[in-house]
Design a protein that fits this description.
Blueprint (H helix, E strand, L loop, with lengths): L1 E4 L4 H14 L4 E4 L13 H19 L3 E12 L2 E12 L4 E5 L3 E2 L2 H8 L4 H9 L9 H6 L6 H22 L2
Parallel strand pairs: 1-2, 1-3
Antiparallel strand pairs: 3-4, 4-5, 4-6
Amino acid sequence: MRVAIGTKNRAKTKAIENVVSTYFNEARYEQFNVSSNVSEQPFSDEETRQGAINRAVNTLKASGADLNFGLEGGVREMDGVMYCCNWGALALKDGTMITSAGATFILPKEIADQLRDGKELGPVMDEYTNEIGTRHNSGAIGVFTANLVDRTEMFEHIVKLLIGQYIFHNSLTK
């Protein structure tokens, strides 16, 4: 089974490989730098979900693989509070698109204000933590949950939802 991943981000690729290898023994992975065709910093569930879908579709176009994943992180506001949100999409060769969302958590005001000013979360988090590549490791979720949940674990949950729906979808078509 060929599995194509629409990013080279380590947290996201590790999440996909960890989950897929649990359910499919002979998966071969390929990574592609594909566009999300949305803002660098998506600002709603709708835009974040669309970014994940676009990554999955663009990955399918680039690879023709059996499973084509797109994962996207974004933010959304509710009642004046900014939350980090995350979406995943799985594009299949038959045109089926499967989507799911994951953890949502509050961003501190000082981070949210910078995003409202047009900055992207990844670089803001690097500056906040005095680290490079936060988005490839613990991510904002790791920082703001005292490392109880890191970015890979958060995306693993989304990938499990996608794979579970894929397995269910396949059971209906047999």
